[in-house]
Amino acid sequence: MKKGLFLFGLILISLSSFSQDTIRVKNQIFEVLYSQKLESPLWLKYKSTNRPTNVNRGSMDFYIEKGIKTSDVEDYKSNIYDKGHLAPAASFSDNMENLKQTFSYLNCMMQDQYQNRGEWRLLEEQERKWDDNENLTITIKVFFDKVPKRVPTNAAIPSHMEKHIYFEKQKVWKCFVLLNERPKFKWSELGMLCQPSSHK
Fold first, then answer.
1. Element (H, E) at 93
2. Sign of the alpha-carbon dihedral angle for 71, 76, 80, 85
3. Is residue 31 in a domain?
C-alpha cells in the first residue's frame, strides 16, 4: 500500500492507494472510497452537525482533483443525470472552505435528476432537522449493476444508493435504500434494517 499527502489549493487531503483503480481519500469534510474505473464513489462517510448557514453556494460548480480520474462536466451533458452530492452542500455552508470541499468530484455521483431533486433532497433536509438535536454519522454506499451502465463519456451510472445514518446520542441507526431513478415512493417508505457491524 502506497501512502502520500497531496495539497490541493489550501486543502490537505490524505490519500491511500488500495489498487490502481480504487483509492481512499479523507479531508476535513468526508472520507471516500473512490473507483477510478467507475469514475464514482463506492462509499462516502461524513458527519452531520448543527452548523450555521453563513455562506451561499452561488454559481459554485464541481472541480476535478489533480491526479485522480473522476467523472467531469462532460459526463453530465445532454442526459438525465445530475451531479449528485453525497455530502450535501447545505450541511457544510458554515464557511466557504467547507462548502467548496463538497464540490469535489470525489463527492459526486451520476444521479437521476428526479431522485436528486426529489426524495434524496428531502431526506437531506430531514437530516438537518435531526442534527439540530444530536450529531449524525452518515455513510452512503453506492451500487452498480454487474455490468455497469455508462454514459458515452464512460462514467458509470449507479443502480441504487444506501444511506446509513447513525444517531450518536441515541446510538441507533436509520437506513434507507433509494433506486437511482425517478422516485416511486417517499424516502420515509424506503427504510431498511441495518446493523452497526455492516458499517466500517
1. none
2. positive
3. no
The rounded distance, in Å, linking the Cα atoms of 171 and 184 is 30
- Residue-wise pLDDT for 23-54, tens only, equals 999 999 999 999 999 999 999 999 999 999 99
Q: Considering the domain boundaries, does residue 123 fall inside one?
A: yes
Residue 116 corresponds to which amino acid?
A: N
Instruction: Examine residue 9 and state whether it is found in any structural domain, yes or no.
Output: no
| Rounded Cα–Cα distance for residues 90 and 24 (Å) | 24
The count of domains in the chain is 1
Rounded Cα distance between 32 and 139, Å, is: 9
Which CATH number belongs to the domain containing residue 180 in this structure?
A: 3.40.570.10
Residue 173 domain boundaries = 47-198
Q: What pLDDT, in 10s, does the model give residues 140-192?
A: 999 999 999 999 999 999 999 999 999 999 999 999 999 999 999 999 999 99
Helix, strand, or coil here: 128?
helix
